[in-house]
């Protein structure tokens, strides 16, 4: 401040006093002793957060959770890094040995995730809790089934053609459903053109959240494919930006929510680790493609928008295992490890699995469906060509 304003004598001098007064030898020695004493202080006791109770599907507030300061409680398994004691027959997914011996994807990526063993359990428990905060009910049907499916397939086509993440697709559809659930489109006219504008804007917002790269130009003047080229509607570029702002304001800028993709890797890992010796070290790519296919197919159902994202993800795992006839060493489709980490039993998912199976059957019989075309190829292990189960066989010997 003195360098900028001078010394206050009006001559504009740029003198500045030292920031700290010089210390004599006695004061320096005292500070040195204090520094040594601080370094030798016994570290503070470990803070253990009481894990969330997973026996109920009802969401609870964070304020209701206890924070225990001090050593971990007696319910913790100290050999597993401080996590809660697991039920009999459940394999701990957060142990570093399990993480290294059973990678979900690439080896290098999985080695990096070993470091979440101390908090991974609490992280996924919080995701499970937040997934039950669903803003959409069964009665929030502003669009017809055909109108909504058309918009979902439009977004899916953009994501597929641009080679984007599955998370982008699911988040865009979730933003779409949350916006339409508020019945705000009547203010600007409920026409097909306005609905397409909403769908493109939802994709535009989801791309910015999930993808690393820049979103596409609304109108690409460099010869590339612009966003408006995916539709035949005459939409002005400014309309896309205006609608995106309306969506953000309607949702109070809370665009990012848990989707089934948030639980995909965790539940896949619980699936093949829970199978023990009956499953190879790395899950088959066909099983993973089948799970992805069922997750994408679930977006077409209006009846599933009121279900929690964790229930949809768990149901996709169950139906994929049932379709491919994958069982653990005890002959079970749904292992104790899956039941523990998903918090769902097979009976809990019955309604969701039945609706997901209905969508699978409908998509398998529609050769023009975008999801069918995407997953019928060899790169996706032809999972769309797998014969769907008979409804009576869905819950036998689970």
Structural description of this entry:
The protein has 398 residues and is mainly alpha-helical. The protein contains 15 helices and four strands. It is globular, with a radius of gyration of 27 Å. The termini are far apart. The N terminus is likely disordered.
Gist?
It is built from 15 helices and 4 strands.
Q: What is the averaged pLDDT score?
A: 77
Residues in β-strands, percent: under 5%
What percentage of residues falls in helices of 4 or more residues? 40-55%
| Measured distance between first and last alpha carbons | 74 Å
- Rg result: 27 Å
Largest pleated sheet? 2 strands, antiparallel
Unreliable segments (pLDDT under 50, ≥5 consecutive)? 1-21, 36-83, 97-113, 277-281
How are the strands of the largest sheet arranged?
A: 1-2
The overall strand count is: 4
Number of distinct helices? 15
Sequence of secondary-structure elements: HHEEEEHHHHHHHHHHHHH
Topology:
Layout: H1 2-5, H2 25-39, E1 47-49, E2 67-69, E3 76-77, E4 83-84, H3 96-101, H4 107-112, H5 120-131, H6 145-161, H7 166-180, H8 192-210, H9 237-250, H10 261-273, H11 285-298, H12 309-324, H13 336-342, H14 350-364, H15 370-375
Antiparallel strand pairs: 1-2, 3-4
Helix pairs in contact: 6-7, 6-8, 7-8, 8-9, 10-12, 10-13, 11-12, 12-14
Question: Which features would summarize this protein structure in a list?
Answer:
about 400 residues; globular; mainly alpha; about 5% strand; two-stranded antiparallel ribbon; disordered N terminus; single chain
């Amino acid at each position: 401040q003195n360098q900028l304003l001078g010394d206050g004598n009006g001559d504009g001098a740029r003198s500045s006093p030292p920031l700290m007064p010089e210390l004599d030898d006695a004061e320096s020695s005292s500070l040195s002793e204090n520094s040594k004493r601080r370094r030798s202080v016994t570290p503070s006791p470990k803070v253990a957060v009481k894990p969330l109770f997973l026996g109920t599907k009802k969401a609870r507030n964070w304020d209701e959770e206890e924070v225990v300061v001090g050593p971990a409680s007696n319910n913790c398994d100290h050999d597993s890094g401080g996590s809660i004691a697991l039920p009999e027959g459940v394999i701990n997914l957060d142990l570093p040995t399990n993480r290294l011996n059973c990678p979900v994807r690439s080896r290098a990526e999985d080695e990096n995730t070993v470091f979440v063993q101390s908090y991974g359990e609490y992280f996924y428990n919080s995701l499970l809790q937040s997934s039950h905060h669903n803003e959409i009910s069964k009665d929030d049907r502003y669009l017809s089934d055909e109108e909504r499916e058309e918009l979902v397939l439009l977004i899916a086509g953009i994501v597929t053609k641009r080679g984007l993440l599955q998370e982008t697709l699911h988040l865009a559809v979730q933003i779409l459903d949350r916006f339409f659930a508020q019945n705000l489109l009547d203010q600007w006219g409920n026409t097909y053109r306005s609905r397409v504008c909403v769908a493109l804007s939802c994709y535009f917002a989801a791309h910015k959240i999930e993808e690393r790269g820049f979103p596409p130009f609304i109108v690409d003047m460099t010869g590339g494919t612009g966003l408006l080229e995916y539709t035949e509607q005459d939409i002005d570029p400014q309309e896309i930006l205006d609608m995106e702002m309306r969506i953000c304001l309607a949702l109070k800028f809370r665009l990012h929510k848990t989707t089934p993709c948030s639980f995909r890797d965790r539940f896949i890992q619980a699936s093949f680790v829970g199978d023990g010796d009956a499953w190879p070290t790395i899950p088959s790519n066909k099983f993973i493609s089948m799970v992805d296919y069922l997750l994408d197919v679930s977006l077409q159902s209006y009846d599933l928008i009121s279900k929690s994202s964790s229930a949809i993800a768990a149901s996709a795992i169950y139906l994929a295992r049932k379709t491919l006839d994958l069982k653990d060493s005890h002959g079970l489709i749904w292992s104790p490890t899956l039941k523990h980490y998903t918090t769902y039993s097979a009976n809990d998912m019955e309604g969701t699995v039945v609706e997901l199976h209905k969508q699978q059957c409908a998509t398998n019989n529609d050769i023009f469906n975008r999801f069918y075309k995407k997953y019928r190829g060899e790169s996706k292990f032809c999972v769309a060509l797998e014969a769907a189960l008979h409804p009576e066989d869905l819950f036998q010997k689970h």
